[in-house]
Specification:
Layout lengths: L4 H11 L6 E4 L2 H10 L5 E5 L12 E4 L2 H11 L3 E2 L9 E2 L3 E5 L3 E12 L4 E7 L6 H7 L5 E4 L8 H10 L5 H19 L2 E12 L4 E3 L3 E4 L8 H4 L9 H8 L3 E4 L4 E5 L2 H13 L6 E4 L6 H12 L6 E8 L4 H16 L4 E7 L2 H9 L5 E4 L2 H10 L9
Parallel strand pairs: 14-16, 16-17, 17-18
Antiparallel strand pairs: 1-6, 2-3, 2-6, 4-5, 7-8, 7-10, 8-9, 10-11, 10-12, 13-15
Helix pairs in contact: 1-6, 2-3, 5-6, 9-13, 10-11, 11-12
This protein binds guanosine-5'-diphosphate and manganese (II) ion.
The site of manganese (II) ion has 3 residues, from loops.
Length: about 400
């Protein structure tokens, strides 16, 4: 789960990261008021959306007067901002963060991520942070400093100091960097984060460190024990298809294609996506219906898949171990009747009670297509699309 920049800054500040003063604004008037409360000097107006790359997309602006703040806030609020990270749909700007401007001498990149290879938290840092960090990571990956943290020892001071030296920091910056690094690590660990990123961590004209941007992402599986974090969720920033699935407890990821998928098991779902691509199509979603799916759950899965207007055909692929093919089949029939389906549906069943399941499909009197193998199901789905979109 992602949170907004201002929320991440407030969390990190509590752990000891230096951040500039700022205020939240939901209207141009509030933005102007915030600028006044910051002393009337230069401020930065920042669009709060769950995405990076806002600067390059016009979502971050340095303003020198209250009038400028007000007019820029009016331009941003209610607008959809498309960045390199949002996809073509963009994200709606509903709130702004108004922050005192900082005079920047150097931009440092600092990231904490989960390194799956070592199964540990890894720090990634660069002395050349800011908006071009992705280009740098691509062109010269060797220039990024990486450091793995031993969970038993935690982030130890000499490691933090070593990193400060490798980034070329000097004097009082070293102590400030150690404090910042340890604060990020504690926030990451104590709050079950998946990612903490400060870009840029600025060296100011006066030589101090301050976090000008902050991003945090959390492990959704741990939210049950982090109610303060769960409360920061902003459904307005989520893919509406995913919010509805999330509310129904389904594992769903929205994709760009037109073949809606209802599958049990994440592995089978991945294999099905591959098969669809191989057959020349594109999946509209990843959906793992899970084990022991009741007919009601199948109906919910259909409703979720149908929240995506791009879906032109539905592929149900079940390899029943814990699941039962007859339950799934009954769910499909029920969904057809309850949801008022008009789209072609392909059903491939295998495993527990497969004969009963196929019998229900066969005798339903509904225009359901049965397939015996995964490859056959994928081909049928691709062929049954009402208006095929170009394969990507
Ligand atoms: P992002 O593009 O979504 O990562 O948004 P950032 O918060 O990182 O802002 C983009 C860029 O704006 C930063 O890389 C900085 O170069 C610049 N920026 C942000 N805050 C300030 C500030 O207070 N003063 C100045 N001069 N530049 C800023
Ligand atoms: Mn940034």
């Amino acid at each position: 789960m992602d949170i907004h920049e201002h929320q991440a800054k407030s969390i990190l500040a509590e752990f000891g990261v230096p951040v500039p003063k700022g205020h939240l604004a939901f209207s141009p008037e509030q933005a102007a008021h915030a600028a006044r409360m910051l002393g009337g000097g230069r401020v930065v107006v920042k669009a709060q959306i769950h995405s990076g790359g806002r600067g390059a997309a016009g979502g971050v602006k340095l303003c020198t007067s209250e009038t400028e703040v007000r007019s820029y806030a009016a331009t941003l609020l209610g607008k959809t901002l498309v960045t390199k990270q949002t996809g073509a749909g963009g994200k709606l700007i509903e709130r702004l963060w108004i922050e005192e401007a900082t005079d920047i001498a150097q931009e440092i990149y600092l990231g904490f991520v989960l390194d799956r290879k070592s199964e540990r938290i890894m720090i990634v840092a660069s002395g050349h942070g800011g908006m071009e960090i992705e280009d740098l990571a691509e062109k010269d990956p060797g220039s990024l400093v990486r450091m793995i943290i031993d969970p038993a020892a935690g982030l130890v001071e000499f490691q933090a100091r070593d990193l400060a030296f490798r980034l070329g920091l000097k004097g009082k910056q070293i102590g400030q960097f150690v404090t910042t690094l340890r604060a990020c690590y504690r926030a990451y660990r104590d709050l079950d984060a998946m990612m903490v990123e400060i870009n840029p961590l600025a060296v100011t004209g006066a030589g101090d460190l301050v976090a000008l941007d902050a991003k945090m992402s959390f492990d959704t599986n741990a939210l049950y024990r982090r109610p303060q974090v769960a409360a920061l969720r902003d459904p307005g920033q989520e893919d509406p298809r995913e919010s509805s699935a999330h509310d129904n407890g389904l594992a769903y990821v929205g994709l760009e294609g037109d073949i809606g998928c209802i599958i049990n098991g994440a592995g089978l779902a991945m294999a099905t996506m591959d098969m669809i691509h191989l057959a020349g199509g594109a999946p509209a979603n990843f959906l793992d219906i899970g084990g022991g799916a009741s007919p009601e759950r199948v109906v919910t899965a259909f409703r979720t898949v149908l929240t995506d207007p791009n879906v032109g055909v539905i592929l149900v692929n079940i390899f029943a171990g814990i699941n039962r093919c007859d339950w799934i089949a009954r769910g499909v029939v029920q969904a057809y009747q309850e949801v008022g389906l008009t789209l072609p549906v392909i059903v491939r069943l295998s495993g527990t009670n497969v004969e009963e399941g196929r019998e229900i499909i066969r005798t339903s009197g509904l225009p359901l297509m049965s397939a015996d193998t995964l490859a056959e199901a994928a081909k049928l789905a691709v062929r049954s699309r009402p208006s095929p979109i170009a394969a990507q």
